[in-house]
Amino acid sequence: MIWPIIKKQFRLMVRDRTNFTLLLVMPLVLVFIIKFSIGDLMTQGIPEIDATIAIAEHTEEEADLTQLANEWEEQPLPEEAKTQLVQGLNQFQPIRILKEEILGSEELQDVFAVVDIAPEEVEAAKKEEKYTAIIEVPEQFSYQLAKSSFLNEGDTPQLTLFVNKSEDLVTEMLQDILLVYEEEMRTTTVLERNGVGDLKPSLEEIRGDIVSVSMVEPITSTSYYVVGMSVMFVLYIASTMGSYAYLEKRDHVFERILLANVSKWRYFVGMVLASSLLAFTQLMILFGFSVVVFGVTWPNIWQFLLIAALLSITVGAIASLVVSLNYRFQSEKSSTVFGNAIVTVFAFLGGSFYPIKSDIINLIGNFTPNGAGMTAFFATLQGYGMNEIVDELMVLGALTFVVIIAAVLVFPKRGEQS
Amino acid sequence: MLEVMDLKKKFKQTLAVDGVNLYLEQGEIVGLLGPNGAGKSTTISMISSLIAPTSGDVRYFNESIVKKPQKLREHLGVVPQEIALYENLTGRENLQFFGKIYKIDKNQLAQKIEEVLDIIGLKEKQNALVKTFSGGMKRRLNIGVALLHEPTLIFMDEPTVGIDPQSRNYILETVKRLNKEKNITILYTSHYMEEVEYLCDRIYIMDQGHIIAAGSKDEIKHILSAEQTILIEAEDIKRDWIKLLENHPSVNKLTAQDKRLTLLVPKEMDFFQTVIETANETNTVLKSVQIQTPTLEDVFLHLTGRALRD
Ligand SMILES: Nc1ncnc2c1ncn2[C@@H]1O[C@H](COP(=O)(O)OP(=O)(O)O)[C@@H](O)[C@H]1O
Ligand SMILES: [Mg+2]
Predict the structure, then answer these.
(1) Which fold is adopted by the domain B2-219?
(2) What is the pLDDT of residues A187-197, one digit of tens each?
(3) Which among A218, A305, B38, B177 has most CB atoms closer than 10 A?
(4) pLDDT at B120
(5) Is any Cβ of chain B less than 8 angstroms from the Cβ of A256?
């Protein structure tokens, strides 16, 4: 008999004008106000990827490759094999490919600016933090790589990546790119040597792998606040549900429910589900409206829905805790405190009002339901995949679990209440 | 069908219910009469399984409900003292919600709701929000909700407080009809003795946690058989006149209110003479002197020395 409870909560919510306005109209109005007053001032605070990458070559690719070609000429190999090797070598220019066809590709050229620097400048550049990242190409890189790729001789040489610590996002992207790059350069040339396919398609593959990374969109102030306000105002579902439940207790309606042989726990589960569904509905209305009015669209709808669902369940859990506290203390205080103080603090920590610069607050903020939800929504908005939001989803899951347990413990057992 | 044995409830300091014994037989209307704070609601809460007694037992068809309330709850309707309704739902929506949590199936529920709306006379207003209802209408719906699952036993806790006389009469008639036509057993709690006197076959009078009298109407009034009530109205009631009467050896109890005096005196005695004499002595102008047949109010006064309504 949980469904009637859920249906009834929806009815109560719709009839409750003031709350209805607070939950649905207020956040959108706030986004409007922000959009037209401070407008783009805020965009500065929003992470946009704009990285300059320095490449320091301790080697000359052309000289390397010429040297190798010459060596091969002198080898006691059949002429046919020699020609094939040299032909392969002509297409094999790993540094040029990295610079021009990968980092300089259409997809990535807006993200990364590539600058050549002299090897002697590297130390100074590291200190100055002038570049987002520095890639060092070791001596005889192309020579060694070709040798190990074509003939399986010697070690595979490694590029050295130096990154400026403050740029996590870029670091991750670059690491991914280089990993794929090195992997592909090695394996595809082995295949090439065996005469399967040619090098071009494998380059496409590299780009394919990194294209999702390159799709990263900057977050506009409008989408920032659409998300910020939505994850903040969805928290009010918890205080509202707490208040409704308190009224049920105060007006003895709860006793009527018990008299119908509905157990306390069934009622409790009804409350969690009703709150979660209400939260989800609220998010859908807010985000749906934002698609139409603010043009905030989601590249991956399923991932978006997953975050919204999980956040809603967390809100349901918090609602049950507020309900439990109201029952335990026979007052509406917990609802008031949660609605008036805690939501505001959470919203601040989570960055709903403005992007937080402090690392510590950011860290704490990511453990609030709204903060975790917001980070996950932003990543999704920017085109990141599931891998990038696993942490946030885990935080939401863990919060739900802990809060539900607390709520169950706080909820008065039979005989504990009068 | 229901038996209450030595029921006690202690809230921190207050002993709200102190050793209550009572029983209900099928088909009866039983009254539980007592002033505010007597412990009526606490008793009702315990026997409807909502709060656990500090000690004592409640048995429904010989089975204790304290640990296993399910069976009682199936057949019990409770009309709480408070308006236990959703103000922001309509009358009909309230009935629907409570009907559904009682697991009444859809078609049957629709039919049942019509029937209940008929009984409580709220057909026309069924689609208005409860918060727009008058006090009387809320009280009626409060009763209606308790009727949906066809209970065989109903506890009503002061179902008529704070409403107009018309609604009150309607409710009293409804209670009588439910008992007559559907043979529902009713425990009716009130601090209005007229209601209890009008409705009930048997009556328990409760005060300060105790049952101080029990029995049929006549049995209870018999407590007063040795006394009669004399009601006096005068132009002005003087202190020395009250003194004179109070000191009279035959006056058992005296209450004065504005221009009215109530005296309890032995039945056989002709007290008229004394009233007139003493009035003359103190220059009191009498307007009327009446001998009253005893009411439950008088019984209560006799038993406790206090008026039922303070
Ligand atoms: N939950 C409670 N906590 C403490 N005291 C209570 C509680 N409920 C009732 N009481 C006290 O118990 C006594 C009986 O109250 P109640 O049963 O409501 O009387 P009635 O219904 O006859 O007016 C009163 O003194 C009241 O203050
Ligand atoms: Mg009461």
Answers:
(1) Rossmann fold (3.40.50)
(2) 655 544 444 34
(3) B38
(4) 93
(5) yes
